[in-house]
Specification:
Layout: E1 15-21, E2 26-32, E3 38-44, E4 50-57, E5 66-72, E6 81-89, E7 96-105, E8 110-118, E9 125-133, H1 138-148, E10 159-165, E11 168-173, H2 183-197, E12 205-210
Parallel strand pairs: 11-12
Antiparallel strand pairs: 1-2, 2-5, 3-4, 3-6, 6-7, 8-9, 10-11
Length: about 220
């Protein structure tokens, strides 16, 4: 009688999720062997609706499972749990590949925030209340929340850094904020960011830069 055959080993994945730290932002760690080491990260709420997406890059030799780390900001109440997805998009047709997911309970305290959003006729901004998960970096969270709203930020806009010094809060965006496609968009972005951040008690002045330049930021 022959011994039973050993089970076939599980196929090796291209992406592994090693950890999800529940906070705001959510911190995601793992290992990936993907095209150009790119990893897309998404967070979905308790009902499965997408509420945030970002990208990160694994650091290591191409073709090996190299470590990656990324953060995703949660800009609205996700409910009792979140699900984090890590995946890659096909360079050929944009299809999803190598998807792995991890679900965790979400117990971050909610706080009420005031966002100043553009009105319909581009003449000013209007205060809107939102309940969002608390963060130790409320200034960054407020900007991320603005960018998640139907506000006139160009596609692929991204916050590079936020620094507070002597009451002046400098928000540096990537180069997409150098040319925003019209004077209305430029004016509304400036007013939205400035008025929203001026709600923070430690902020006396807001400076907006793009790729490090204040002069080039928010050109029509």
């Amino acid at each position: 009688m022959q011994p039973p055959a050993e089970p076939a080993p599980a196929p090796e994945r291209n992406i592994y999720l090693d950890g999800v730290e529940v906070a705001n932002p959510v911190v995601v760690t793992g290992r990936a062997r993907t095209f150009e080491s790119n990893v897309a990260l998404r967070v979905r709420d308790a009902r499965g609706k997408l509420i945030g997406e970002t990208f990160t890059t694994a650091t290591g030799e191409i073709g090996t499972h190299s470590p990656f780390r990324g953060t995703i900001w949660v800009t609205r109440d996700p409910g009792a749990s979140i699900t984090v997805d890590a995946l890659e998009y096909s360079a050929r047709d944009g299809s999803e590949q190598s998807l792995v997911s991890m679900t965790r309970p979400f117990d971050v305290e909610l706080v009420e925030a005031t966002l100043y959003l553009p009105n319909a006729d581009c003449t000013g901004v209007v205060a809107q209340k939102r309940r969002i998960p608390k963060s130790i970096s409320m200034a960054r969270l407020l900007v991320e929340a603005l960018m998640a709203e139907p506000a006139p930020f160009p596609k692929e806009s991204r916050v590079e850094s936020i620094n507070l010094r002597d009451g002046t809060l400098t928000v540096d965006f990537n180069g997409r904020l150098q040319n925003v496609g019209g004077s209305c968009a430029a004016q509304m972005i400036r007013q939205s960011v400035t008025r929203t951040l001026m709600e923070l008690p430690s902020v006396k002045k807001v400076v907006i830069t793009a790729a490090g330049s204040e002069a080039l930021a928010l050109q029509p």
